[in-house]
Write a structure and sequence with these properties.
By secondary structure, this protein is α+β, with helices and mostly antiparallel strands. It has a single domain, classed as Protein Transport Mog1p, Chain A, CATH 3.40.1000. 26% of the residues lie in helices and 37% in strands. The chain has 3 helices and 10 strands. The strands form 2 sheets. The protein has a 7-stranded antiparallel β-sheet, sandwiched between helices. A 3-stranded antiparallel β-sheet has the order 1-2-10. Strand 3 and strand 4 form a beta hairpin. The longest helix has 21 residues.
Length: 192
């Protein structure tokens, strides 16, 4: 009688043990969908106007010198945990070359952590805006930087920073999204 139960138990086990081999799941990736960018012109009592993404918080302006020679402007993106920092400096007879050199050196300081730094020349003759846009690859503190000037009166420097330890793979989607916003700022910039 015990042998009937043993045979029955083994046959049930045998029937249920057969099946498909387990298949590992494919590696998944986080999908980040950002809203379509909508822009509005910002005229915050500055020597220039530009368009910013409506996803960003209201612009914060910081007067850096009492003679209206320089301003700081922060464009915060709370949902992306990043900020585009703009610094405006009025061009005088002898400061344009040092300003450009300082801006380029600021970008080159990221070479210790960056995998690559690519620079693109920017020119808008209609609005007298000339400069460079730098894309920084790798685990650098800033993923994008730029400067623009009219070579006579105005100089604007900008940098993108995130509120997180630089991990290129993790911040790449947000960095790409904000890179487009930076280029839009450059393209819509008009001096007063």
């Amino acid at each position: 009688m015990k042998s009937k139960y043993v045979v029955f138990a083994l046959s049930v086990l045998f029937c249920f043990s057969c099946g498909d081999d387990p298949v590992p799941k494919p590696k998944g990736f986080l999908r980040l969908d950002y809203p379509q960018a909508k822009y509005q012109e910002i005229d915050a009592d500055l020597p220039f106007v530009f368009e910013k993404n409506t996803l960003a918080a209201p612009v914060k302006k910081i007067k850096m010198e009492s003679k209206n020679l320089s301003y700081g402007v922060n464009i915060d993106y709370p949902t992306l945990k990043g900020t585009i920092y703009l610094t405006y400096i009025k061009v005088t007879d002898d400061n344009l070359i040092p300003l450009i050199r300082d801006s380029q050196n600021l970008t080159q300081e990221h070479t210790q952590k960056a995998d690559a730094i690519e620079g693109d020349f920017y020119e808008n003759r209609d609005h007298q805006v000339y400069g460079m846009f730098y894309e920084i690859g790798g685990n650098a503190a800033s993923q994008s930087q730029f400067y623009v000037t009219d070579s006579i009166n105005h100089f604007l420097n900008g940098s993108l920073y995130f509120y997180a330890k630089p991990n290129y793979d993790s911040i790449l989607p947000a960095a790409d999204y904000l890179k487009k916003d930076i280029k839009h700022i450059m393209e819509t910039l008009k001096w007063k």
